[in-house]
Amino acid sequence: MLTNIRVRRGRPWLALVGLSAALVAASATGARAQGFISPLIGYDFGGDASCPQITNCEDKRLNAGVALGTMGPVFGFEEEFAYAKDFFGKAPALSSSVLTVMSNVMLVPRIGPVRPYLLGGMGLIKSHAEFTPVSLLTSDNNSIGWDVGGGVIVLATPHLGVRGDIRYFHAFQDAAIAGFIVQNPKLDFGRASVALVVAF
């Protein structure tokens, strides 16, 4: 028997799309705004992730994604997509993943080639878990959530650099995860990552 557990999708998406469009337009019109694309790689920790803390963890799970955005002299905006396979850990006949799609406002002052930043925003946190290969039980949760974090961008040239950051993600809605015990019914976790920055 196949069981699907889904959280209802509400109308907050309409507000989120409108807010994102307004922020993109505001950022793009800022003086000397600079666009960027930033592919990232990192790992999740804490909360419901299989790695309980950021250090001394032997069960790190890869999280990969990309951010697209724009930076002005002080403020910026980014849209980030990231995916983590085996988010809840590995076990026989079980698989899991978490997808995040976040719209973030950035405070990112320019200090020469260095740009420290703080960011925060909201978007989609989608979790998936199933028993394989027969898939007797499957759980999918689509939740609106928020994230907050910070880091630093170092541009070695005007168009190429690196960044590192730490972020915290938290869902607004309860998650029903088949076969897993989560620490909090509202999915939450941290992520440490490094990324390439291509500015244009």
Walk me through the topology:
Blueprint: E1 4-5, H1 12-28, E2 34-45, E3 62-71, E4 75-85, E5 94-107, E6 114-131, E7 138-157, E8 160-174, E9 186-199
Parallel strand pairs: 1-7
Antiparallel strand pairs: 2-3, 2-9, 3-4, 4-5, 5-6, 6-7, 7-8, 8-9
Brief digest:
The protein has one helix at 12-28; strands at 4-5, 34-45, 62-71, 75-85, 94-107, 114-131, 138-157, 160-174, 186-199. The chain is mainly β and 200 residues long.
Tell me what you see in this structure:
- With 200 residues, the protein is mainly beta.
- It has a single domain (4-199), classed as Porin (Beta Barrel).
- Helix content is 8%, strand content 58%.
- It has one helix at 12-28; strands spanning 4-5, 34-45, 62-71, 75-85, 94-107, 114-131, 138-157, 160-174, 186-199.
- The protein has an eight-stranded antiparallel beta barrel.
- Strand 3 (62-71) and strand 4 (75-85) form a beta hairpin.
- It starts with a strand and ends with a strand.
The major beta sheet can be summarized as:
8 strands, antiparallel, barrel
Number of separate domains: 1
Strand content: over 45%
Number of helices: 1
Q: What would you call the shape?
A: elongated
Question: What is the CATH third-level topology name?
Answer: Porin
Strand arrangement within the widest β-sheet reads 2-3-4-5-6-7-8-9
Report Rg.
18 Å
Question: What is the N-to-C succession of helices and strands?
Answer: EHEEEEEEEE
Assembly context of the chains: single chain
Name the average pLDDT: 79
